[in-house]
Amino acid sequence: MSREDSYVRILQSVAQMQVSIASILEAKAAEAEKSKAWICNHLTAQQFAAHQDQVQQPLEVHDGLIELIEAMTRMEQSLGRHLQIVIGEQENQGGGMGDYSDLLGGGNK
Q: pLDDT tens across 19-60, in order?
């Protein structure tokens, strides 16, 4: 398998990962909408002894969603860094310096 074929396979894999990530985010959005509806309809002031308890329950749901978003963001940033390295290597082998040559130590200083 040639280098170009390897790069194409890498890019196809990354594209498929992006489709999977989009599906995960769609499912989480639907879950968040269901949680919102449940919280708005079932968590009333009469069900809690103190206002602090009433606020704590929705905050726990919110914190879980924030953690998921942060994890997905870190994964996307990692994918982006790896693609920059791959693109930088490909451009350097083609004879051009490329935008990412400094990343690989190939830049002129």
A: 988 898 888 889 888 888 887 887 777 777 888 877 887 788
Contact of 26 with 32, CB cutoff 8 Å: no
Residue 8 CB partners (closer than 8 Å, separation 6+): none
C-alpha dist (Å) from residue 7 to 22, 86, 88, 93: 23, 8, 12, 13
Q: Any idea which residue has 């002129």 for tokens?
A: 108
Within the chain, how many helices (H) and strands (E) appear? 2, 0
Other beta carbons within 10 Å of 100? 20
DSSP 45: G
Structure tokens at 102: 């400094």
Angle at 58 between CA 57 and CA 59, to 5 degrees: 90
